[in-house]
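Note to self: keep these together.
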Amino acid sequence: MKKKYSDNFERDNKFYFENIKHFNFCGTLTPKFEAIEDINGKTAKEVFYLIDSTGKNYPTCEPKLLNELLMCKASVNFHIKQWAEGRADGTLPFCEFAGDSEVLEWKIEMIKHKYFGWLPNWSKKIFGIEDKKNAIPIYQKSMAIQYGFPEWVIKAVEMQKIKLLEADKTNPNWLKYEVQNQKEKYKDKGFSFSV
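Structure:
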């Protein structure tokens, strides 16, 4: 017996359904699609699938749910752009976006030493990294864990971040090299963000 929906669609539909209340702003007043109400229409899930796979809208017997699913999807896409900007400009660290549920102080110290260890001592104070007591452990869940992001959301944000960084011609050569390495790593089919 042939499955009606792919595993990827089932995963995404579940993600959108569980996050309807969290993602309900998409940056526009008029969404691309709006539910066509009909008592004899298809279920919201069926129409959501058809819109996603064919780009065509159909009447539904569950217009409120369909509109919420469509808004959630549009909102996630809008937020992907916002999160990518935060990742690119450094205001949204990966550990807060998609890291483990706890980031221990020693891990942060290791990162600080790797990226800031070369700075002279007088400048470390400016960056707030002069001693261990300034480490900021993060004990809340990352966004990816809190909202149950499918891996494609994390990858979409990281790839969009890479595009933004590549477009910025003022970046130093070492950052361009790091961005290129990340791009190649994320494009590998075997690569996985372990969230």
